[in-house]
């Protein structure tokens, strides 16, 4: 994350019915993901930031400007906050064309604000061919892109996204994510995004705020938090893993492989259509790593990284969780442990049986060889790099 003053400072308390929210965090440039179980308080928190709900006590500051300060009697109404809000459903005006829906957003842009031209937003979101259509003639993904465009045309200083991809199928989600990345990287617009999907968070977010029953269980850079075993129960166990920064080194055409350079060591992955020098991030799932305490020989796996154990985490394997996965299958409670690792300065995470951890004597500081099967690294796990200023 970029150094300097946070873009957003939040410190709020609210009670609604039996639920109490006590949340304190700061967010910098880039995308801040609010992640947590259903009912953890994500939408409530986003509504407080937008000014659609009011806390009993609190302070919310955007770009150094207080939007809410109950102690000082500051209460900026929602339409004067310069915050764009995109909901789960696009909520477009059905009787207006796409162009008219977009221009509606413009009505809320202050005269003195730096405004992105309509053409730039249309181009960034790839909606030029849709301008004369009405919403009922758009796909779900197109509708969401228009809703994002409408929010952007109000010249916001912050964009709130409350699960804007939730109602879309996997193909439509994959279609929209690159546009959200363009907003993050080209418009440099800070975003707060509610998400249930850890893959989505890993790909898009730079900061993670983990909510648990109305409280912030942890907040910080996504990569660091995703490698912390004690947080896995809140992250969704089965897909635990980390992101490795990588650069395409070259292709091995005869074998259909691509060579990546990472700080952790070289990595062979199934061939990518990316030129040498392209910067990427590779999501390596904890369940795809094998650990050895001696240099392995005669392996079919192509990748062996040298590293060391950082921590042997909480026991996992709660029956019933993540049905169909390791933890939800035959494993008895406590059969599996998560092992935090470091290789060449990069955090990695392995999920192994408690028996293996005991037999190998896994403990902090122990040197290990980390084996990554090439075929375990799927194409969808390889995503564009973050811009340098958003890297942690
Ligand atoms: N108007 C309300 N009155 C009373 N309780 C409410 C109200 N709105 C929400 N709640 C409760 O507040 C808690 C937090 O709700 P919230 O919608 O913020 O959770 P969430 O993390 O966004 O959940 P989800 O992922 O399911 O959308 C829940 O227990 C919910 O039942």
From TrEMBL:
CC per GO annotation: membrane
Keywords: ATP-binding, Cell inner membrane, Cell membrane, Hydrolase, Membrane, Molybdenum, Nucleotide-binding, Translocase, Transport
Keyword ATP-binding: yes
A UniProt-annotated Pfam family: ABC_tran
SMART domains: AAA
Top-level taxon of the source organism: Bacteria
Ranges where the Mop domain occurs: 298-381
InterPro entries: AAA+_ATPase, ABC_transporter-like_ATP-bd, ABC_transporter-like_CS, Mo/tungstate-bd_C_term_dom, ModC_ABC_ATP-bd, Molybdenum_import_ModC, Mop_domain, P-loop_NTPase
Annotated GO MF terms: ABC-type transporter activity; ATP binding; ATP hydrolysis activity; molybdate ion transmembrane transporter activity
Protein name: Molybdenum import ATP-binding protein modC
PROSITE patterns: ABC_TRANSPORTER_1 (PS00211), ABC_TRANSPORTER_2 (PS50893), MOP (PS51866)
Gene3D superfamilies named among the record's database cross-references: 2.40.50.100, P-loop containing nucleotide triphosphate hydrolases
EC code: 3.6.3.29
Annotated ABC transporter domain residues: 5-238
């Amino acid at each position: 994350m970029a150094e300097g003053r946070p873009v957003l400072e939040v410190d709020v308390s609210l009670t609604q019915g039996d639920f109490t929210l006590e949340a304190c965090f700061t967010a910098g440039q880039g995308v801040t993901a609010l992640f947590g179980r259903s009912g953890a308080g994500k939408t409530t928190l986003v509504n407080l930031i937008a000014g659609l709900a009011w806390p009993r006590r609190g302070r919310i500051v955007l770009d150094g400007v207080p939007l809410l300060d109950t102690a000082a009697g500051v209460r900026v109404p929602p339409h004067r906050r310069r915050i764009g809000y995109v909901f789960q459903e696009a909520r477009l005006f059905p009787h207006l064309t796409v162009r008219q829906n977009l221009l509606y957003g413009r009505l809320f842009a202050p005269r003195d604000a730096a405004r992105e031209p309509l053409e730039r937003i249309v181009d960034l979101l790839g909606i030029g061919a849709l301008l004369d259509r009405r919403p009922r003639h758009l796909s779900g993904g197109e509708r969401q892109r228009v809703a994002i465009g409408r929010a952007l045309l109000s010249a916001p200083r912050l964009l709130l996204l409350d699960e804007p991809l939730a109602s879309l199928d996997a193909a439509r989600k994959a279609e929209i994510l690159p546009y959200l990345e363009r907003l993050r990287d080209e418009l440099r617009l800070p975003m707060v995004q509610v998400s249930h999907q850890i893959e989505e968070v890993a790909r898009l977010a730079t900061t993670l705020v983990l909510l648990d029953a109305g409280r912030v269980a942890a907040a910080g850079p996504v990569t660091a938090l995703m490698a912390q075993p004690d947080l896995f129960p809140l992250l969704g166990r089965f897909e635990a893993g980390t992101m490795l920064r990588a650069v395409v080194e070259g292709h091995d055409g005869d074998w259909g492989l691509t060579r990546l350079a990472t700080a952790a060591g070289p990595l062979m992955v199934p061939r990518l259509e990316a030129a040498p020098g392209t910067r990427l991030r590779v999501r390596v799932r904890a369940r795809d790593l094998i650990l050895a305490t001696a240099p392995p020989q005669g392996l079919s796996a192509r990748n062996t990284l040298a590293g060391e154990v950082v921590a042997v985490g909480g026991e996992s394997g709660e029956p019933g969780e993540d049905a169909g996965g390791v933890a939800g299958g035959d494993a008895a409670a406590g059969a599996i442990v998560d092992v935090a690792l470091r290789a060449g300065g990069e955090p990695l995470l392995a999920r192994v049986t408690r028996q293996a951890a005991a037999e190998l004597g896994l403990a902090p500081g122990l040197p290990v060889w980390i084996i990554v099967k090439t075929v375990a690294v799927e194409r969808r796990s390889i995503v564009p790099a973050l811009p340098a200023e958003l890297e942690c």
